[in-house]
Amino acid sequence: MVSNLRMDRMDFKKSLESAKIELSHLQHELGECLKKQAHLEKKIVAVRQMIVGFSDALGEKFIEEDSLGLTDAIRQAYKTAGSKLAPTEVKDRLESIGYDTSKYGNMMASVHSIINRLVTQGQLRPISMGGKQYHEWVVKE
Questions:
Q1: In the chain, how many domains are there?
Q2: Where on the phi/psi map is residue 24: left (φ > 0), alpha (ψ -120 to 50), or beta?
Q3: Is 121 within a domain?
Q4: 63: left (phi over 0), alpha (psi -120 to 50) or beta
Q5: Fewest CB within a 10 Å sphere: which of 6, 59, 103, 112?
Q6: For residue 6, what pLDDT is reported?
Q7: Which residues contact 78 (CB under 8 A, 6 or more apart)?
Q8: Is 20 a member of any domain?
Q9: pTM (2 d.p.)
């Protein structure tokens, strides 16, 4: 009976070590995916800005068919900004990448609500400077 307990313990020990190694590999793989996601989001913003610029030069209005939801668009604005943003800068940034803000009755109220929710969720960090409120994306590694 004692040898069976010892054998079970050895099996659990091997399984534990294997699980720890697998966890480490998965965390590394996720980190690589998140880096790639950040890189792709920056490229998407750059291409959207080019499209908006070309559309403006041609007197056309760019309306993206596969539009992001406002929360995801605000997340993307912060992720790709590279620095802190004030709520009004978020609205300007969304418009610069072609996001249609006209469909919101009170755009700034929506921006503030979403920013507050993202702060509560730990995705944004508030920063006060010179009596003005800014926020920055919380990088999770």
A1: 1
A2: alpha
A3: yes
A4: beta
A5: 59
A6: 66
A7: 85, 90, 118, 124, 135, 136, 137
A8: no
A9: 0.58
